[in-house]
Specification:
With 150 residues, the protein is an alpha/beta fold. It has one domain: D-tyrosyl-trna(Tyr) Deacylase, Chain: A. It contains 3 helices and 8 strands. Strands 1, 2, 3, 6, 7 and 8 form a 6-stranded mixed β-sheet that branches. A two-stranded antiparallel ribbon has the order 4-5. The longest helix is centred in the last third of the chain and has 19 residues. The radius of gyration is 15 Å and the shape is globular. The two termini are 14 Å apart. Homodimer. It is found in: Cytoplasm. Its EC number is 3.1.1.96, 3.1.1.-. Pfam families: Tyr_Deacylase (PF02580).
């Protein structure tokens, strides 16, 4: 499971011109699910995101978690995070999970993120053509992969 996390002052996702999810201060989470991801990957990643200290303390240092600022999450499915560009110029997505696996994993990730963090979690819609807008605060952008946690 792979995510790109962006610290944002605001973010939103639109589908067919209608806002599906929107947040103010918090994390934009682009979530890529791989075919061999498990619930263990979800639990590890949820804990990592909930405790990640990327928000500024009183001295301006990144030392505060999203829980401490009572921020929000905006989670958007992003299968292209598992693109392979080794051969040619057209990315291959063979490592990305098929929808029959990815959709339940995406929904479980959201459910566990809500429960674990106790914070608001807004979402996009799996498989939809989404327009994402955000103001990256910092900018702060971090890549986290559950397969490289050890």
């Amino acid at each position: 499971m792979r995510v790109v996390v962006q610290r944002v002052s605001e973010a939103s996702v639109k589908i067919d011109g209608v806002i599906k999810g929107a947040i103010h201060q918090g994390m934009m989470v682009l979530l890529g699910i791989e075919h061999d991801d498990s619930e263990e990957d979800i639990d590890w990643l949820v804990a990592k995101l909930s405790g990640l200290r990327i928000f500024s303390d009183a001295e301006g240092k990144m030392n505060v978690s999203i829980r401490e600022i009572k921020g929000s999450f905006l989670v958007v499915s992003q299968f292209t995070l598992h693109a392979s560009t080794r051969k040619g110029n057209r990315p291959s997505y063979v490592r990305a999970a098929r929808p029959e696996l990815a959709i339940p994993m995406y929904e479980l990730f959201i459910e566990r993120l809500k429960k674990s963090s106790g914070l608001e979690v807004q979402t996009g819609e799996f498989g939809a053509d989404m327009k994402v807008a955000l103001i990256n605060d910092g900018p702060v952008t971090i890549l986290i992969d559950s397969k490289t946690r050890e």
